[in-house]
Amino acid sequence: xxxxxxESMAHKVPVQDFTSDWDHTDPRWVNDPYPIWEDLRxxxxxxxTERYGGGWFPTTHEMVSSIANDTEHFTSRMVVVxxxxxxxxxxPAPIGGAPPxxxxxxxxxxxxxxxxxxxxxxxxxxxxxxxxxxCNKHLDQMAGHEFVDGGMDYAQFIPPGxxxxxxxxxxxxxxxxxxxxxxVLDLIDLPSEVRGPLFEPMSEYFTKxxxxxxxxxxxxxxxxxxxxxxxxxxxxxxxxxGTMVLILVAGIDTTWSxxxxxxxxxxxxxxxxxxxxxxxxxIPVAVEEFLRFYAPVTMARLVAEDYEFxxxxxxxxxxxxxxxxxxxxxxxxxxxxxxxxxxxxVNRHAAFGLGIHRCVGSNLARLELRVAIEEFITxxxxxxxAESDAVTWAPGQVRGPRQxxxxxxP
Amino acid sequence: xxxxxKVRIDPEICQGQGRCFSxxxxxxxxxxxxxGVVIGDGTLTSDxxxxxxxxxxxxxxxxxxxxx
Lengths: 410, 68
Description:
The structure holds 2 protein chains of 2 kinds.
Chain A: H1 2-10, H2 18-21, H3 27-31, H4 34-43, E1 46-49, E2 55-58, H5 61-68, E3 74-75, H6 107-115, H7 121-125, H8 128-142, E4 147-149, H9 150-154, H10 158-167, H11 174-186, H12 192-198, H13 200-215, H14 221-227, E5 229-230, E6 233-234, H15 237-268, H16 270-278, H17 283-293, E7 299-303, E8 307-309, E9 312-314, E10 319-322, H18 324-327, H19 362-379, E11 383-385, E12 405-408
Parallel strand pairs in A: 2-10
Antiparallel strand pairs in A: 1-2, 3-7, 4-12, 5-6, 7-10, 8-9, 11-12
Helix pairs in contact in A: 8-19, 10-15, 11-15, 15-19, 17-19
Chain B: E1 5-9, H1 19-23, E2 28-30, E3 36-38, E4 43-44, H2 49-56, E5 64-67
Antiparallel strand pairs in B: 1-4, 1-5, 2-3
């Protein structure tokens, strides 16, 4: 699949001016978006583009918060910016393609209440020993090597291992999960006639898993979704499949990216690494600063009807790229916003979104991030980037390091 | 002398961000959906007021209110 995306990116016109032609897949944005966002925040602060059929990118915390909390003017029918809005396989409201993230009120709260209990702190915290064991399984394989890859040898394996257990999918299918994530989140620039058919194997995979769970019900999230009743009725199969897609896609490269970014930071900041090694009780506080400073997830909305927002003439079905990571760097919302402060005590970050679509998996993501950091720095108390040029970043709406070559220091 | 200082969470505003019960587990807990709830009647002492304020200043949704 990577060949397809490389080819589609190669035909793109590089961005000259992000204020009027932003593109979140432009190599400059992918490699280091923060100076671009800072510039836009000072000069715009809402950037526009004609790409993807037209869209807006607000850069202040105030604007991002305002849109996230305004489900009347901004709909979640589609949350990943692609070239073709409403493709042939589009599943309309109220269910949407991946409920509840693609749902609007009032259906949204019904779909959300179905899955919230599974992701509440009680059941999530019970997963801690399993997550710790998973981390150590991969750390054992890295042990004894001077050169390792914090992304390819470690971060990418943690979330799929956890999510496959929760959904009751075969853990050895994690390569398939990563392909699905890549298709949904990275291959956004493909023409729909090329992209559409790529979804068929994913649909077949979910059909197979659902059929298997109907035949062999067991104690996991898939069987729960197939059997749970809302108002005396089971969920439609399309709803179950959509929620499974959501949990798989939103649960994997988001946290993978967050773990990778934290390791990337520690590799470049030995003083922060030493502090966390010596004061592990500080790690939960540091986790919040990793989440603020390197928030991986940007969501999108569509403008519901023509609407003027902070003087911008937004048209029905324009994209709005909801930059939670940009909001987290807004100096009006955070003291020393552009500084990573490992023990920042007051940290009202928006890494998990704001309002009714707050990331359902936030408790799980925090737990995975904390345990993954704890185990990594316990095993490797000193490490640095092996080659800074070799670090690569995921493009699009979920940002984090993919190749992350490290040198383990004695 | 006023009455006791109390903390409350507005359930209409809370979205279950989970910061309060992580920062101040003696003051806040969570319900079955993962939303924050105040333990007991929310009365704060001079010992717990500062921690409640810290939780308040970390709530992304501004859902925590401290009233004297």
